[in-house]
């Protein structure tokens, strides 16, 4: 696809990254003044360990960024991954060691809270490092910014002065959104106590906006006048978000559905400060297997390493791409289908016209450079293989695969090699413990005997299609209610599962002799 054809298709593509990118073209029809880069931002609150929901925001924002670059023929862009690490620690997360250490630091900026894992300067530094390792693993192009660094270095000071200068207008935006009790103590500015180092939720009076001076009552009851600049104060959440947009010149930031009100109020405050709020959209939240919203503090979110123990990076990206405005479950049971769906979409991509290519998730996952290789065996079939007795390791599984297709090898097929290893892990931990082969009954016994006789006369190298046709014929001859009932009987009696693979492919992969052994075991159990 030529660059011109790509841009032409992108201008009308209904793929959501292109729809989002076109908002930025309307925002700056002639590009940003002075050739400045379009600024994309994602935010992270390091009060808990990062999970896939955190990672997803950066991934999705990157897809919009790349779509914008496609539309503009390579206009400059930046992606800021921002950590709100100057927030005061409000509660101790449920999923960290040494909770008493954190309990003693409640209220302090996260960069001043000890690291309960004992390996970083602070709890925020620990979680920031995990976030960056997530992003680096996937090769993201981003600039990491820390709220504590931006406040303490003075980078935010000019915009903080503007907040103080527009203090009453900002209060006018926020007070109508608060309960009466909250209005009595609300302040857009949260000073850091000079006596305890905690971030205080107390009323603040602006003494001198130009000098950045504020006054408030400290925790010990004393009246304090001090600077709000240089890290001596931070802003309340919605005001902080708006200030950051203005200070960093942010053009695009997406947010979860739970932050719709924050987006609205922060947008109003950004306008008070003299800047148009960024473009973006509100995505739906991820749910755990119980249908509950995932949470860093609860620790019920799925870790990136959890998915990558059992599924490929591309399968994760594929799952995260689809339907961002629809609430979706996020748990390990989704992996097998995500892996196979990814490969099905990847195999379709080369033959699709430009407009369909741009709507294919793999186009965005691979930035338009989709690998040409295909997968000779589905992940589902590999799971069936590695769930069988005696095939619980990668080397053994490869022996079956190479017999099935001799030209395959770990060296020549690294993606297949990775998937075999992942299948071994998933089968071991989630499939094998659930398998329970039942005894065949009635007509199933006769059908299995006929299947065994059929396999006995087939050559060892019979094709999957040839075997599948024979299995079909047996099902048609026997008085099963439907072919579906025949195949379900095969899955339950031979594999111990209510569903399974295309039987012709499975038997060809596992081998005719081994498959006959499974049948013999099933028939023996019926006799017993």
Q: What fraction of residues sit in β-strands?
A: 5-15%
* CATH architecture identity of the domain at 379-527: Orthogonal Bundle
| Shape, principal axes of CA atoms | elongated
Overall pLDDT metric: 94
What's the number of extended β-strand segments?
12
The strand line-up of the biggest sheet is 1-2-3
Rg result: 29 Å
> What is the CA-CA span between the terminal residues?
64 Å
**Which fold name is given in CATH as the topology of the domain at 379-527?**
Arc Repressor Mutant, subunit A
By DSSP (H or I, 4+ residues per run), the number of helices equals 24
Given helix and strand content, the structural type is: mainly alpha
Percent helix, as a range, is 40-55%
- Unreliable parts: none
Largest sheet: 3 strands, parallel
| CATH class category label of the domain at 379-527 | Mainly Alpha
Describe what is shown at a glance.
The chain is mainly alpha-helical and 528 residues long. 49% of the residues lie in helices and 9% in strands.
């Amino acid at each position: 696809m030529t660059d011109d054809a790509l841009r032409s298709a992108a201008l009308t593509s209904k793929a959501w990254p292109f729809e989002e990118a076109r908002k930025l073209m309307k925002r700056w029809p002639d590009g940003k003044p002075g050739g400045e880069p379009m600024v994309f931002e994602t935010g992270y609150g390091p009060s808990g360990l990062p999970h896939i929901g955190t990672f997803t925001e950066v991934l999705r924002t990157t897809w919009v960024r790349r779509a914008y670059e496609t539309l503009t023929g390579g206009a400059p862009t930046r992606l800021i991954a921002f950590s709100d690490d100057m927030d005061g620690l409000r509660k101790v997360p449920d999923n960290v060691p040494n909770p008493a250490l954190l309990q003693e630091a409640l209220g302090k900026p996260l960069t001043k809270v000890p690291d309960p894992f004992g390996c970083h300067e602070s709890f925020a530094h620990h979680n920031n490092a995990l976030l960056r390792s997530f992003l680096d693993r996937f090769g993201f192009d981003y600039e990491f910014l820390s709220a504590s660094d931006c406040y303490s270095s003075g980078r935010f000071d000019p915009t903080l002065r503007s907040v103080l200068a527009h203090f009453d207008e900002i209060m006018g935006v926020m007070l109508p959104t608060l309960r009466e009790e909250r209005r009595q103590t609300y302040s857009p500015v949260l000073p850091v106590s000079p006596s305890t180092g905690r971030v205080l939720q107390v009323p603040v009076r602006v003494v001198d906006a130009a000098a950045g001076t504020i006054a408030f009552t400290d925790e010990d009851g004393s009246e304090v006048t001090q600077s709000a600049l240089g890290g001596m104060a931070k802003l309340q959440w919605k005001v902080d978000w708006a200030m950051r947009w203005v200070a960093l010149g942010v053009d695009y930031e997406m947010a979860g559905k739970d932050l719709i009100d924050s987006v609205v109020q922060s947008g109003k405050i950004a306008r008070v400060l003299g800047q148009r709020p960024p473009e973006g959209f509100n995505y739906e939240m991820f749910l755990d297997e119980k249908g509950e919203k995932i949470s860093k503090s609860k620790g019920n979110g799925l870790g990136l390493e959890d998915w990558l123990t059992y599924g490929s990076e591309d399968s994760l990206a594929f799952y995260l791409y689809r339907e961002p405005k629809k609430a979706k479950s996020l748990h390990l049971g989704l992996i097998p289908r995500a892996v196979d769906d990814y490969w099905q979409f990847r195999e379709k991509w080369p033959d699709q016209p430009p407009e369909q290519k741009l709507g294919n998730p793999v186009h965005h996952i691979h930035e338009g450079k989709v690998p040409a290789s295909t997968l000779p065996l589905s992940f589902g079939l590999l799971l069936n293989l590695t769930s069988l007795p005696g095939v619980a390791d990668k080397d053994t599984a490869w022996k079956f695969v190479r017999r099935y297709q001799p030209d395959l090898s770990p060296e020549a097929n690294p993606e297949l090699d990775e998937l075999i290893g992942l299948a071994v892990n998933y089968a071991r931990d989630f499939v094998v413990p659930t398998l329970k082969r039942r005894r065949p009954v009635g007509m199933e016994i006769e059908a299995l005997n006929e299947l065994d006789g059929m396999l006995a006369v087939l050559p060892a190298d019979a094709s999957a299609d040839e075997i599948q046709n024979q299995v079909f014929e047996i099902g048609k001859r026997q008085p099963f209610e439907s072919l579906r009932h025949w195949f379900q009987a095969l899955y339950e009696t031979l594999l111990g599962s209510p569903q399974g693979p295309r039987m012709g492919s499975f038997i060809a992969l596992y081998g005719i002799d081994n498959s006959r052994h499974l049948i013999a075991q099933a028939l023996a159990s019926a006799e017993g």
